[in-house]
Amino acid sequence: MPSQITGRPLDDAGNPTAGPALEIDPEGRAMELFSESPHALASSPGMGMWSAILRYPESGTSRTPTMLVWLGPEATTLPAHVHTSSTETFQSVEGELTVVVDDCPNRLAAGDELTVDPGDSHYFRNDTDDFVAFQVEVPWKKTIDTQYMVAGLDHEGYLGADDEYGEPDFAQGLLLAEYVKDETRITIAPQIVQQLLWASIGRVARLTGRRAMDERYLRDQFWESNVEQPDI
Q: Which value, in Å, is the radius of gyration of the alpha carbons in the chain?
């Protein structure tokens, strides 16, 4: 069966645009997982990523927040980070996912799983020329929040220039890093430096109306209005 082309940004009339598209195997494991999720497909066109929430548990429960993520062949590589007290587990669903832990690349074929321990610097990327789908059990819901914040800002035109999609700028990145600082630490700069930046550039960004999170971007209605949904 041919691949399904979906996940394109929608125009104001609800029609797919010529923006970045996701290619899905309609009979593959990723589509099976998506069909079991109660949530809509989200996307960050400027970063070449698509995602669906599999579990977003209520506070106080022991269930682990979990996402299904697709990376395009030219997807943005997110910065290295550590989780201070919780593990993060990656499982490749389709294609080969690379998870770099303490500068050592681990290539996960479909079905392979890797758990990253607290304190280990890590990030993920797509080193292939195809789409990669993976499932990730994240340490806390704020990990999901930040990805959806970036995606929502991208769709609403806050990240790119001249009607193009884009990536978070330095100020927005600071706000996101501060939002997750209790459990997640970005390793590109010492913590004391980040604290100084939060108190200076971050403060100015907040005064100009920027935020680290907007709950609208966690609502399925937003994504159903902005992203072409897979035919299931």
A: 17
Contact between 134 and 97 (Cβ < 8 Å): yes
d(CA 204, CA 24) in angstroms, rounded, equals 42
Task: Tell me the C-alpha distance between 50 and 22, whole Å.
Answer: 8
Tell me, rounded to whole angstroms, the distance of Cα 72 from its chain centroid.
Answer: 12
pLDDT single digits (tens) 28-52: 999 999 999 999 999 999 999 999 9
Helices 141-155 + 170-179 axis angle, to 10: 160
Question: CB burial class (10 A; 0-12, 13-18, 19+) of residue 20?
Answer: buried
Q: Give residue-wise pLDDT tens across range 80-110.
A: 999 999 999 999 999 999 999 999 999 999 9
Query: Which residues have CB under 8 Å from 203's CB, separation 6+?
Result: none
Q: Is 75 helix (H, G, I), strand (E, B) or coil?
A: coil
Res 19: pLDDT: 86
Question: Rounded to two decimals, what is the model's pTM?
Answer: 0.94
